[in-house]
Each structure stands twice: as structure tokens, then as C-alpha cells.
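Q: Here's a chain of 330 amino acids. Please give me its 3D structure as C-alpha cells.
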Amino acid sequence: MSQALVRIAAAWLLGLMLAVAGAVVAVNLVNNSIASPQQPVREYLDALRKGEGEKALGLLHASVPQSNPAMLDGEALKTATARITDVKFGDAEDRGGNQAMVPIDYTIDGNRLHTEFLLQSSGTQWLFFHDWSFVPAALPVVDVTVVNSSQASLNGVPVNMPDGRNSFAVFYPGEYEASLDDQYFAAPATKATVTSRDMPSAPLNLLTQATDGLKDAVSAKVKEFLDGCAEQADKRQQLQPACPFYHATNNRVVDGTIDWSIADYPAVSIEPFGGRWVVAPLDGKARIKARQVDLFTGAVTELNAVHDFSFTTRLDITGDTVKLTPQLNY
């Protein structure tokens, strides 16, 4: 009887020891997975991929600096993390004071990058399971400038650019691309990759240029002005019309024979200057044909002369409307 009791007690003791060992293994597994310092980072990255900015901000316990929040939610946020691939989590490193650093390595556009997240233990749940959260900090900021424009696009989202500049709070890691692609003005896209809350990114500077569409529109108006000027000079039979071109002579030009035309139209160049868009001086050639009489000999000859001319013009653009005002010195 006593031996049977011993065997039963031993079986119970073995079972208890196995249960305790299993519990220890289970606790360790949980603490190394869903209760590990890496878990909040996984949840944070998942929120970024889904464009859930409010959730990501709550997980990160981050404060938002005074800036434009356009990149903190929705499609802009999804775009920021769309190119993040091949994410590898490193082992958490003890930083003392109940804090741990979780490193991750990942790839953006073929570049291997590294980010570190600082977390702190805020106690345990159910006595055994660790509770980790991000150490609060401010979000990083990306500065954007654009030449002579109050609008731009950042991660595909139209954004306001008062006085040609703005600052945008962003999550990390992420890639942010600024561009400008309007009917009349455009700038090559420029990118910044943000990998840390502490490391400032280079500003995104958009070097705006006039599009071919604007140059064509201005060229058409220059041609319209010059053709109209030549036509009026013909109607009024003027050698020195209110135009950029004129003809001076000591001969008498036979009335009714004066014929002005534009031999070479000016090439249009548009550049930023002093916060405006200016058209470079317009240089061209005008041809005059007429019959003239030499006042000394009375000889009648055919006049066929080409004159260089140059003038400036004021460019005003309102919406889709292009206005050109020639500046002539008579």
C-alpha cells in the first residue's frame, strides 16, 4: 500500500514538474513573441502600411511638432511605406532603466537601411507577461521649398506652400517625394528617406521651371502681337510704327508699297526672378519691302531690308490665363 502511494505521489510530482516547466516555456514563448519589445514595432509598421496614422501615432506615443500634418494619414502615409521591403528584426538590446532598443533592417529602392526604436517596460500583465511601449518623442519633420509656387505635391497629395515653403511632420521609416507637375510650371521630383526620429532629413527643394506648354502659349502670344503689329503698320503705311521694329531712310518711300513681315520670331525663355516669372528679352528680325525714290537722283529702287529688333514683355498668369504685355520704348 505504501509503495502504491509513493508511486502515485511521484506521478503527481512529475506531472506538476512538467506542468511548471511547460508554463515556464509558455511564458518565455509569449515574452519572446506577442509580449516582446519587437511586438509594438510590428504593430506600428503594420499601421503605417495600412495608412492608419491615428493608430500609429498612438502606438508611438509621439508628439506632433508645429507643422503640416498632411503626411500623417491615408494615401500619403501608405505611399511613404510602400517601398519598404525585406524587413528584418534584430534582437532587443538592453539599454538599462527598463528600456530596450529594437533594431530593424529593411530595403527602400534597393538601399539597405537601419532604424532603431527605443521602448520601455511598463510592467507586466497576468504577473508574467511583459508590457512594452515606445518611449515618447516628437515626430521628425521634412522641409519642402518650391520656386515661385504656392502649391506642390508630396507623396502624391496636393499641399499648400505659402511663400514657397512648408514643413511636414512625418512618420519613420518612410520615403517622401515632392514634385510639381502643373500645366504651366513643373519641377523634377526629389526624394527624402527618413530613418530616424532624431536624424534630420535633407530639405526637398523643388527647382520649378516653365513647361513647354507655357513656352508655347507665350510664343503664340508673341507671334500674335508681332503679326498684328506688322499688319497695322501695313495698313497705316508706316516706316516707324508703334512696334519693336522700324526703318529709317533719307529716301522717299512710295505710299501704298510698304509691306512689313516677321523674318525670325523670337525664341522664348522664361525664368524665375524676384518672386515672379519673367520672359527674357525677345530678339527677332523684321523684313520691310517697299518701293523707294532717291531724292537726289530720282532713281526708283526696290527696298528689301531686314532689321534686328528686341523688346521686353510683362508676363502675368492667373489660373489657366496667360497675359502678355509688351514693354516698348517709342
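Q: Can you summarize the key feature?
A: Confidence is low (pLDDT under 50) at residues 19-33.
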